[in-house]
Design goal:
By secondary structure, the chain is α/β, with parallel strands linked by helices. It is built from 17 helices and 13 strands. Strands 3-2-1-4-5-6-7 form a 7-stranded parallel sheet, with helices on both faces. Helix 2 links the parallel strand 2 and strand 3. The chain is globular and about 55 Å long. Bound molecules: uridine-diphosphate-N-acetylglucosamine. The site of uridine-diphosphate-N-acetylglucosamine (UD1) has 18 residues, from helix 1, helix 5 and helix 12.
Length: 357
Amino acid sequence: MKLVVVAGARPNFMKVAPLMWEIERRAGIDAYLVHTGQHYDERMSKLFFDELKIPRPDMDLGVGSGSHAVQTAEVMKRFEPVVLEQRPDAVVVVGDVNSTIACALTAVKLGVPVAHVEAGLRSFDRTMPEEINRILTDAISHWLFVTEPSGVANLRREGVAADRVFLVGNVMIDTLLACRELSRRSSIREDLHLTGRPFGVLTLHRPANVDDPGVLAGVLAAIGRLQCELPIVFPVHPRTRKALQGQNLAAMPGLIVTEPLGYLDFMKLLAEARLVLTDSGGIQEETTVLGVPCLTLRNNTERPITIAQGTNHLVGLDPQRIVAAAQKALSEPSANGRVPDLWDGRAAARIVDVLSA
Ligand code: UD1
């Protein structure tokens, strides 16, 4: 069996890694890895391939940045000849980025069935580009691999045949568990002078948060209060760096601003943080498994199990609410949550079992 596996943006890389490891271990199944080039900075891409021992992509489409239409169209144009040449039995896409829908749509139009890893998640907020990518990718996929029961229910409601939906667990957690030992050895805490003292971690990159100056100012006002109580590490995404131009972050001595971090350093910080504030989807899941309190700076989440069972709290974007939620989390001895079923490090094996059956 021959698969074409697609990776495009940073949050794809830790999902593709365990699939590639698993395929490599098995006889009779081959993967041709395509990097669309949606993310291209060394620290947003190559570093992850190196650290996660993902094989070098067989093909880099080099699309780079652009408007949604331009980026999606460029991926489609450049991916089509690859599918025609490789003639795979299936194309595997992960997550919800523009590369995901672009490659899925290209493949089905060529008659190649698509497997979607991380299917079924819904924020029910159609202003999020990722929500559109999720709905469309699921509608045209043949195999839908789901991380949590809400995804199964969402797909059922959308009329997807039950025999295409597989609750397999979470490939991102496969990677987290596989890398725990290595990430423990990262020197990032010493490097940032955080040894022996509690700290928080902040990430922000959603267009709805960082591209709106009013929203961004509100979040920074909340962080301004919190960094007086707890040093906060803030690895800055390239989109956010642009949005922060002109902001006086130096006025916040407790805010430790860094470049985007590699996977192992970032997992070390997440695992040992007293508190995490984020608008990322994946970090809600990683903190749940690590048992670290997470405040999600959004009004919705497509990953409700992280709230129902895990350590995640949806706090929205109101500065006072963010500060109050953070102070409450800091006053509590520890987060209590449990690890969702099937988030056990074996999701990629289950997926490859289904694909090769
Ligand atoms: C994309 C995904 C988002 C995901 C996020 C993780 C879509 C619609 N969005 O958003 O779901 O959570 O990745 O990071 O697919 N840039 C660089 N270097 C890079 C990549 C981007 O400088 O390697 C800059 C460019 O100026 C670019 C901007 O960041 O215009 C945004 O990049 P883009 O890929 O369009 O979207 P993200 O915000 O990264």
